Each structure stands twice: as C-alpha cells, then as structure tokens.
Sequence to fold (169 residues):
Amino acid sequence: MSTEQNQEIQHPTANLANEAESERNKALMLRLIDEGFNKANLSVVEEIVAPGQQEHQYFGPNQPGGPEGTKIIIQNLHRLFPDFTLTIEDMVAEGDKVWVRATGRGTHRGEFLGRPPTGKQVAVAVIDICRFENGKMVEHWGVPDRFHMMIQLGIIPEPQGTPERLYQK
Fold:
C-alpha cells in the first residue's frame, strides 16, 4: 500500500474537508466568473476577492491587487468588449487552488493600445489559477493568449507559412 493510500485510510475526515474546500472554492470561482466577469456585477468582487489579494498577471505597472484591481480589469474588459463573456471549458480544484481553462469572447468596441475599435469579434484562450483562504481569493495568476487577441484585432499580422518555416533561422 502506498503512503498516499495509507493516509487516505488513516485520515478520511481530512479528505472530506479537502473535498469540501475544493467544492466551495470552485463555487466561488464560478460565481466570480458568471456574476463578476460576465455580468459586470462589481459588488460580487468585494464578496470574493480578499483586500490584500496578490495579482500575478501583468496588467501594467500601476495595476493594484485586491478587489479594486479586479474591478478595474472587469470594467476595462467591458469597455473594450461590451458583450464580453468568459466561458469555462475546464475547471479543477484541489484544496485551496482552482485552475480554470476558459475562452473569453467579445466584440471590440473600445479604444485599445491607442487604436480605435475594429468591430471585430475575438475569442481568446485563458488559463487562470486562483488560491483561496477562508472563502476569499488571495492570489491570482492569469495567462490570456494576448498574442492571438492582437492578431484577431489586426494589431499584429498573422504569421505566414508553415510551422516549420516560422521557426527556422
């Protein structure tokens, strides 16, 4: 019997507590995405994001963490893409962490990087990892495919050629 299997037998209540924490954190993440990001309900951010939350995704040199930073992100997404939605493709939770693979979609209606709205629809792959403590998000790491978004908006050109040719010296 492995050590992990032995621990499960010795500590069944610890496993139940871990599962309960994981499910609670998934529910919080679902609510933040649905009500906060999709519906732009900023009051839910105060309920879910901790005041001292650390934001590890780069948004610029002066982007704050905590609820204020998350509200700014939501407001900017809806300014750029008024019909913005975030669709969860996969979600996994383990203890205090939740991993999400999602697709952000919207129609470009706001100025971005000094460029006027294009009216183009974009679909961007996003990976988010969040850590929770006592029912509050305390850390967030996000990886949106900004490169693909800029190609879809025409900010940078679509690479031409085959993958082999793109990476040759």
The radius of gyration is 19 Å. The mean pLDDT is 90.
